[in-house]
Specification:
- There is one protein chain.
- This protein is of the alpha/beta class.
- The protein has two domains: 252 residues, 3-Layer(aba) Sandwich (Aspartate Aminotransferase, domain 2); 114 residues, Alpha-Beta Complex (Aspartate Aminotransferase, domain 1).
- The protein is built from 16 helices and eleven strands.
- A seven-stranded mixed sheet has the order 1-7-6-5-4-2-3, with helices on both faces. Strands 8-9-11-10 form a four-stranded antiparallel sheet.
- β10 and β11 form a beta hairpin.
- The longest helix is centred in the C-terminal third of the chain and has 36 residues.
- The chain is globular, with a radius of gyration of 24 Å.
- The relative contact order is 0.14.
- The protein binds pyridoxal-5'-phosphate.
Length: 473
């Protein structure tokens, strides 16, 4: 493909994407295909001769689109959002166009330095402690996901605790890490991969609001110490996945400070709320954290993948993850004057992801981002009020941010049936969880274009389907 053909095809692709967004509300949010359906419509082997862009787009329309669940639909309320915006898409396109692999500073200084600058901006934007800035001892780095941030944090904590020997000698089976029963499953995965072992990960009990009980944490740590274990890592969450609960950061932080345990804060979803000062009381004590992460690719209008991860002391990361084979040696690295982000995470190669984040922040401005976050929170409160005022549904937890957990009074089986019935209409898509053993429906309101009209439609649909199902019983 020549540059002039690319110019032509590229414009058509932009048109295709713009058309997609204009028509997205006419498509069933949840893909209605059956397992294997898409695969079976694709040829079993690759084409011997090259094909045209037209043929490819034709197949996208006919074969691929029916198998798409429309995450960018304003009627998408499932899981957590993975929202998006046009400035972000354009930034990502530019990153593809430049095709930079930014593993070390020398492989594209702008890739490293823009990322450092944007990550420093975000420290101020989210009200995070100054120690996370590159101008201090810390610094931020973009990771693919919160799962990778958790793994990076736990490995760095492991190294720090073993005086930087676990990389050499492996891990003795005595290190123990702490999460709550509500912590995201990625922490269990991280504990397994990091060689800590699932049996050395303690799930601490939560209170009535699904937040970790600091007293229970303290008691478990005391018990473990008595039993000869070495506590080393605690993960606290701001906005758990099931119910958006917030762990008491300050109390947990003090326990960590006293014992010199690494405190990682997982704010993957709800960290975005910290753009607005009125939510920052939820992260009181954040200055006690050793590391913190949130996902702009969830709620901050930045397309997947983009997780922001900060540490209070970058030397812990660098001492843990540094590798310097001969073929990567260079003057800039040796001078110590630059960051080589390959030493800040698991993988070597890295995309120029800060471009899309930079585009998003500059397009909206801090006030624009705050506006949209507040709108989503306002919508969630409206929805919660409708649930509360209804006779058939219960509000399970008062929403702190933009997630509403509710259930129909008719019980677990009914709730699942209701959810499946509503989702099968293709009008909206929402999902469930379990809290205290009971099925709970979740409306996660964070799609970039969701407004009051969409939410009213959703509530009306849920009410209608619930009544139909009750009558049919
Ligand atoms: C979504 C989520 C994760 C995992 O996110 P990935 O970026 O997909 O790894 C972890 N923790 C919390 C609290 C989340 O909401």
């Amino acid at each position: 493909m020549t540059p002039s053909q690319f110019r032509e095809e590229g414009k058509k692709m932009i048109d295709w994407i713009a058309d997609y967004y204009e028509g997205i509300e006419n498509m069933p949010v949840l893909s209605q295909v059956k397992p294997g359906e898409i695969k079976n419509r694709l040829p079993g082997s690759a084409p011997q001769q090259g094909e045209t862009m037209e043929q490819m787009i034709d197949d996208v329309n006919k074969i691929i689109m029916p198998g798409i669940t429309h995450w960018q639909s304003p009627d998408f309320y499932a899981y957590f959002p993975s929202n998006n915006s046009f400035p972000s898409i354009l930034g990502d396109l530019l990153s593809s166009g430049l095709g930079v692999q930014g593993m070390i500073w020398a492989t594209s200084p702008a890739c490293t330095e823009l990322e450092t600058r944007v990550m420093d901006w975000l420290v101020d934007m989210l009200g995070l402690p100054g120690k996370f800035k590159s101008t201090s001892m810390g610094g931020g780095v973009i990771q693919d996901t919160a799962s990778s941030s958790a793994l990076t944090a736990i490995v760095a904590a492991r190294e720090k605790t073993t005086a930087f020997k676990s990389n050499e000698n492996g891990v003795a089976g005595k290190l123990v890490a702490y999460v709550s029963t509500q912590t995201h499953s990625s922490l269990e995965k991280a504990a397994k991969i990091a060689g800590i072992g699932k049996n050395n990960l303690r799930a601490i009990d939560v209170d009535g609001n699904f937040a970790m009980k600091p007293d229970a944490l303290k008691a478990q740590i005391e018990k473990d110490k008595k039993d000869g274990f070495t506590p080393f890592f605690v993960c606290a969450t701001i906005g758990t996945t099931s119910s958006n609960a917030v762990d008491p950061i300050e109390e947990i932080g003090k326990i960590c400070e006293e014992g010199n345990y690494w405190l990682h804060i997982d704010a993957a979803m709800s960290g975005t709320a910290m753009l607005c000062p009125e939510f920052r009381h939820h992260q009181k004590g954040v200055e006690l954290a050793d590391s913190y992460c949130f996902n702009p690719h969830k709620w901050m209008f930045t397309n997947f993948d983009c997780d922001c991860f900060w540490v209070a002391d970058r030397n812990h990361l660098i001492n843990t993850f540094s590798i310097l084979p001969e073929y990567l040696k260079n003057k800039a690295t040796e001078s110590g004057a630059v960051f080589d982000y390959r030493d800040w995470h698991i993988q070597l190669g890295r995309r120029f992801r800060s471009l899309k984040l930079w585009f998003v922040i500059r397009h909206y401005g801090v006030e624009g981002l705050q506006f949209h976050v507040r709108e989503h929170v306002r919508l969630a409160r409206d929805f919660a009020r409708w649930v509360d005022e209804s006779t058939d549904f219960d509000l399970v937890v008062e929403p702190l941010f933009n997630l509403v957990c509710f259930s129909h009074k008719a019980g677990d089986t009914f709730n699942i049936k209701l959810m499946d019935t509503v989702n099968r209409t293709g009008e909206i898509y929402f999902t469930h969880t379990r809290l205290n053993g009971k099925v709970v429906l979740r409306m996660s309101i964070g799609q970039s274009n969701t407004n009051e009209k969409h939410l009213q439609k959703a509530w009306k649909l849920i009410l209608t389907k619930a009544r139909e199902l009750i009558l049919r019983r």
